[in-house]
Fold Cytokinin riboside 5'-monophosphate phosphoribohydrolase.
Amino acid sequence: MDEQRLIAKRVAVFCGSKKGLNERYEQMAFDMGAALAKAGWEVVFGGSSSGLMGAMASGVMHQKGRLLGVYPPFLKERELVHRSLDEIYQVADLAERKKVLSELTIGSICLPGGVGTMDELFEMMTFNSIGQHNARFFALHNVHGYYDHLMRFFDQMADGGFVSDQILGRVVLEEDCQTMVKKIEHLSNLSGDH
């Protein structure tokens, strides 16, 4: 398998380093990791074992999937690096983390998270809109309607002429993990190419 093929099946997953208050978040993070790994996707994420990141990584490992972490050592006081990483990319800061995440993947999935998760999503969308990354999808794992308000905000930005249809056409909003995987595979032109 060549390097281009490997990159073609890599997805960045952004999510909280905390579990959140809704009990469903942690289970759905695990389920999303498992669904991606089962479909043959390599998962690239922040590398932490904390919160939803840890739950998602556990789902990947449960299906014996491949897990790559992009981790700045200054976070070690707040978040432990996940022990089951197949590869770790050590970076100096969060800006470099986002750059490496974009270089290694063809799209991203956002699970519930806070401002760090939103920062990662918006940076990927910005890279795409200025031609520095050609993401095929920006998927929002809409657990219990978590991203409903963000989708309305995207519509407002589009109505105001501030975001292109090309970018919004790559946004996927879905709660079901299996359906999400099918949708990102369709957008990636990889469906059935395992």
Observations:
- Residues 1-5, 190-194 have pLDDT under 50 and may be disordered.
- The first helix runs from residue 3 to 8.
- The chain has eight helices and seven strands.
- The first strand starts at residue 10 and ends at 14.
